[in-house]
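// run 5 | inverse folding | seed 20
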């Protein structure tokens, strides 16, 4: 457990950490990318995971002093360095703890390029529109984003080699991709009428099965699905008008 000088410290105060501390919450798919690396490397003893609430929340002065973007995940290091952005954090953890647990190193330039390509597509084209599944927005904007999401899933289906993104070896693209698929798999059939995420995307389905069979992957999936179930129980999709919008049949919602 990291130690804090003050849980709601102003930007000028010193916030110290005994060890690297990941600020994150279980439902976060971007945070899940980092948690998967931590679990696969078995470095929970070396890296703490805390909710941003211990610093007063994402918009608190103490948190904004560490990450002015007010976003998570965020990795705070004992030397005072703060690393935001899930791709940066996951790569740092895989590099810093290279000799611990599972390796995310890929053996050839071709496999490394394939891995980076999937990371790039996820971060550039999927993550920016994933909010269409659960955030409040205008109906036409949501419908267009769901269409684009389906297209990107089809692209990823063609790129995933199986059983993992780059073949037989785990890479950092695996850490990036499956937590977002957990969102898609939970939300799209229940609220947008998709028959099944993987019926027309068999490569992604085989990939999902491989990740789900991995204890670290299953742990992250369980964390995310637990959070999504809480959203469901609270009526999130009804409160934000998503159920009402999807009932409008002049728009296409399932792919």
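// decoded
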């Amino acid at each position: 457990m990291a130690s804090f000088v003050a849980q709601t410290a102003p930007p000028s105060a010193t916030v110290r950490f005994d060890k690297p501390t990941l600020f994150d919450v279980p439902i976060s798919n971007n945070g899940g990318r980092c948690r998967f690396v931590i679990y696969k490397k078995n470095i929970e003893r070396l890296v703490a995971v805390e909710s941003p609430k211990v610093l007063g929340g994402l918009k608190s002065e103490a948190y904004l002093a560490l990450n002015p973007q007010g976003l998570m995940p965020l990795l705070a290091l004992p030397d005072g360095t703060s690393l935001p952005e899930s791709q940066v954090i996951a790569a740092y953890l895989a590099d810093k703890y290279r000799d611990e647990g599972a390796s995310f190193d890929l053996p050839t330039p071709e496999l490394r390029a394939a891995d980076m390509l999937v990371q790039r597509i996820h971060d550039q084209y999927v993550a920016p529109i994933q909010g269409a599944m659960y955030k409040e927005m205008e109906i036409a904007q949501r419908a267009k984003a769901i269409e684009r999401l389906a297209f990107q899933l089809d692209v990823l289906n063609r790129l995933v080699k199986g059983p993992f993104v780059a073949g037989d070896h785990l890479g950092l693209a695996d850490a990036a991709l499956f937590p977002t698929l957990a969102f898609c798999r939970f939300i799209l059939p229940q609220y947008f009428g998709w028959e099944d995420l993987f019926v027309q995307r068999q490569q992604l389905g085989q990939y999902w099965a491989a990740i789900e069979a991995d204890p670290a992957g299953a742990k992250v999936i369980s964390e995310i699905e637990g959070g999504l179930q809480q959203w469901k129980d609270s009526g999130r999709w009804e409160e934000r008008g998503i159920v009402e919008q999807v009932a409008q049949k002049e728009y296409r919602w399932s792919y």
